[in-house]
């Protein structure tokens, strides 16, 4: 991803998250000034994540997260257990909010992508790692493990070990 395109996408993500959190805000409970909330703030604040999951991630935020991750629309449809046709239908109604289970999966994948980019520093390297059988993960593709929460935890654990230089 080109630097200016990545920067522009991050800026759009920051604005969309701030707008979503402002919409979800309860006075005195969440941030008082929602315009200063960034995408990174959102991913590191478990209370905001819980609130987002319960409200349902809006399609507009999902669309930006989808662009930020290395996953295709087909990958997302599989991860969210919906058809690609349903995802295309959701795109036509921008006010669509995903169900809590789907919202949780969207945020989990966003977290994995964030850690993966931190570890590999490059989307292409991270994507290659996701699609390469991994000995430490039972010779499975990390991508295959992202379909459920336990698998996601295994993938995050392996990314953490890689970041600390612990290779199996």
Structure description:
Residues 118-165 form the Antitoxin Xre/MbcA/ParS-like toxin-binding domain. One of its GO terms (molecular function) is DNA binding. Residues 50-110 form the Antitoxin Xre-like helix-turn-helix domain. This is Putative toxin-antitoxin system antitoxin component, TIGR02293 family. It comes from Sphingobacterium wenxiniae. With 168 residues, the protein is mainly alpha-helical. It has one domain (3-163). Helices cover 67% and strands 0% of the residues. The longest helix has 22 residues, at 3-24. It is globular. 27% of the residues are buried. The mean pLDDT is 90.
Defining traits:
168 residues, 0% strand, 10 helices
Write the layout of secondary structure elements.
Elements: H1 3-24, H2 39-44, H3 46-55, H4 59-68, H5 73-80, H6 84-92, H7 100-120, H8 123-130, H9 142-145, H10 149-163
Terminal CA distance: 30 Å
Low-pLDDT sequence parts: none
What is the residue-mean pLDDT, rounded to a whole number? 90
Major sheet summary line: none
What level of helicity do the residues show? Answer: 55-70%
**Overall morphology:** globular
What is the number of helices? 10
So what's the oligomer here?
Answer: single chain
Which series of helices and strands comes N to C?
HHHHHHHHHH
Total strand segments = 0
| Structure classification | mainly alpha
If you compute it from the alpha carbons, what radius of gyration comes out, rounded to the nearest whole angstrom? 16 Å
Strand content: under 5%
Domain Antitoxin Xre/MbcA/ParS-like toxin-binding: 118-165
Protein name: Putative toxin-antitoxin system antitoxin component, TIGR02293 family
Pfam family, one: Xre_MbcA_ParS_C
Domain Antitoxin Xre-like helix-turn-helix: 50-110
């Amino acid at each position: 991803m080109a630097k200016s395109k990545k920067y522009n996408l991050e800026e759009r993500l920051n604005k969309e998250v701030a707008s979503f959190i402002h919409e979800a805000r309860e006075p005195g409970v969440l941030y008082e000034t929602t315009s200063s909330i960034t995408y990174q703030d959102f991913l590191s604040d478990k209370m905001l994540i819980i609130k987002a999951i319960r409200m349902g991630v809006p399609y507009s935020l999902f669309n930006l997260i989808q662009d930020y991750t290395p996953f295709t629309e087909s990958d997302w449809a599989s991860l969210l257990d919906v058809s690609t046709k349903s995802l295309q239908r959701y795109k036509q109604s921008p006010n669509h909010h995903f169900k809590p289970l789907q919202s949780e999966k969207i945020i989990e994948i966003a977290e994995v992508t964030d850690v993966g980019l931190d570890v590999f520093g490059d989307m292409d390297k991270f994507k290659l790692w996701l699609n390469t059988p991994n000995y430490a993960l039972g010779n499975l593709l990390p991508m295959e493990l992202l379909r459920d929460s336990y698998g996601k935890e295994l993938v995050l654990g392996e990314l953490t070990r890689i970041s600390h230089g612990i290779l199996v």
